[in-house]
Design goal:
Distance between the termini: 68 Å
Organism: Natrarchaeobius chitinivorans
Number of domains: 2
InterPro entries: CB (IPR044068), DNA_brk_join_enz (IPR011010), Integrase-like_cat_sf (IPR013762), Integrase_catalytic (IPR002104), Integrase_recombinase_N (IPR010998)
Number of strands: 3
CATH topology of the largest domain: hpI Integrase, Chain A
Protein name: Site-specific integrase
Structural class: mainly alpha
Mean pLDDT: 83
Number of helices: 13
GO molecular function: DNA binding
Keywords: DNA recombination, DNA-binding
Strand content: under 5%
Shape: globular
């Protein structure tokens, strides 16, 4: 081992890496990296590696096998795409570790990432447009302007990420269309990292999004009849609230899992389950329903809908604040046949 290395416990090096990320990465990215590296720390503890200097290429290979088999968090063997993400984070960490004289400069190169087949690293789960509209229509009749209704309405109509919806303040609403540069009702997504609501693309994510007159009316009703009159821990007035203040991101995810179950709105179970005995009928277990969908699925469904309706790519990119490559890979759920048929509408007969 090189004499230039300075001894350091793996857990301490991970903490330093996490701290160093603050200058360039959003809080959610840092949290994800820290979570991924917990498995590496656990591996080092099990293998009695007390000094990061001692980690070898063979150890890294052993970690890959150990993690692939599901060790580290008590779950079943993990998917290849999950393993790839964890190894990519480990590579980045080892590059940082080399800069602080904790490992050999070239050690990160010995972390090889698994090769993914086309589409293997992309989820195919989505909330189809007809389902989203059916759930919204149900909410409009059964629970109009409720928090559940507003959450899905904003996610579907804007295609925004959970963090953007969660970060909305009352000052970000222009429901009467009085803003001089935005015609009609609109909402503004703002990057506010210092008070707990960063946007995924940081300052580049700050933008106005037009909303319909009907969406504005439901928001007005929500503010008048259902919004809790609370502030968050930073003295801000959130649009979406709980009785404690601004909801956690997990609260919004749980809301989506809840309202996207067919049985929640009285439909028969498409999975032949006995609703009286199904564990997914409990709110904290709703994600276990095969039909439940996440906020990410709402976003992918919206992109697919925009694309199927021939909305120009640039418009979709700007509204959803995402690059064309990301939209194509992670959000557009049109089948190859659907894309081919859509192209044929613009091509002359051959």
């Amino acid at each position: 081992m090189s004499g230039d290395l300075e001894p350091i416990p793996p857990a301490e090096a991970v903490e330093m890496y996490h701290y160093a990320m603050r200058d360039e990465h959003a809080a959610a990215t840092r949290k994800s990296a820290k979570h991924r590296l917990q498995s590496f720390i656990q591996f080092c503890e099990e293998k009695e590696i007390d000094n990061l200097n001692d980690v070898s290429g063979r150890d890294l290979y052993r970690f890959r096998i150990w993690r692939r088999e599901g060790h580290g968090d008590g779950r079943e063997p993990i998917k290849l795409v999950t393993l790839k993400g964890q190894l990519a984070t480990l590579r980045s960490f080892l590059q940082f570790a080399a800069n602080i004289d904790a490992v050999r400069p070239s050690l990160y190169e010995q972390v090889t990432l698994p090769t993914m087949k086309h589409g293997e690293d992309v989820s195919d789960s989505t909330l189809e447009a007809d389902r989203a509209i059916a759930i919204l229509e149900y909410l409009e009749l059964a629970e109009p302007a409720s928090r559940e209704h507003i959450i899905l309405l904003l996610l579907w109509r804007t295609g925004a990420r959970t963090g953007a919806i969660r970060g909305l303040d009352l000052r970000d609403l222009d429901l009467d269309g009085s803003h001089p540069k935005v015609k009609g009702p609109a909402i503004r997504f703002v990057h506010r990292p210092d008070s707990g609501t960063p946007l995924k693309n940081q300052e580049d994510g700050t933008r106005w999004n037009r909303i319909s007159e009907m969406t504005a009316k439901y928001l007005e009703d929500y503010l008048e009849y259902h919004r809790q009159d609370v502030t968050d821990d930073h003295g801000r007035k959130p649009v979406i609230t709980t009785r404690y203040g601004r909801p956690a991101g997990n609260t919004i995810r749980k809301t989506l899992y809840k309202i996207t179950r067919p049985c929640w709105r009285g439909e028969s179970c498409p999975h032949n389950r006995d609703v009286a005995e199904c564990e997914a009928t409990h709110l904290d277990q709703a994600s276990k329903c095969p039909s439940s969908r996440s906020p990410h699925d709402v976003r992918s469904g919206r992109v697919t809908y925009y694309r199927s309706e021939d909305v120009p790519r640039r418009i979709v990119q700007d509204r959803l604040n995402a690059s064309e490559d990301i939209l194509d890979r992670h959000y557009d759920r049109r089948t190859d046949r659907e894309q081919a048929e859509q192209r044929s509408d613009y091509l002359p007969d051959l």
